[in-house]
Amino acid sequence: MVCTLTGCHGWDEFNCTPRHPSDATLIATWQAQRADFDQLVAMFVADEKLEDVADDWMRPETLQEAGIDQARLDDYRQRFQQLSVKDGLRSYGNKEEIWLIASACGLSVSGSAKGYLYLPNAGEVPDWGTMVDGDLDAYKPPDKESYDIFRPLGDGWYLYYSYED
């Protein structure tokens, strides 16, 4: 087990196992539990002070600073298990982008993550990324540098894969 800024992960640092879930798995989960994904995001938006939350940490670090109680934190963590969002969710800034992390591998400075991106106002995906038509796992980057790719699901929802070299 290795602990990083994205949480604690049971993975092999050299082979990055277990592998990220397939697009098909993530899409099937999202389609089957769409209302639950929407509820999770609505909770997160309502909790204005909460920036990041995962199974074993959150930011801000205390319940009081985050503006939530233990029952609310427990509710988040139960929903993560139900939705297979193993590494929680986060937003940078004003929650115009909400990242639901299904899996992460590596360190905060090098590695990869895969999951869902929700843009509450059906905004555009971040301009540093590439929109992909089809399976994210089949994407071949033009070089071996860092990249972010997105696959639209509809209504402001995307699958994402992020690689940091």
**Portion in helices:** 10-25%
Query: Count of helical segments?
Result: 4
Q: Order the strands across the largest sheet as they lie in space.
A: 4-3-5-6-7-10-9-8
Radius of gyration of CA atoms, rounded to a whole number: 15 Å
Please report the total strand number as a whole number: 10
The first-to-last residue Cα distance is 21 Å
What is the number of domains?
Answer: 1
Instruction: State the order of secondary-structure elements, H for helix, E for strand.
Output: EEHHEEHHEEEEEE
Q: Strand count, sense and closure of the main sheet? A: 8 strands, mixed
Q: List segments where confidence is low: pLDDT < 50 over at least 5 consecutive residues.
A: 1-15
- Our estimate of the beta-strand percent is 25-35%
Provide mean pLDDT, rounded.
87
C-alpha geometry: globular
* Alpha-beta content class: alpha+beta
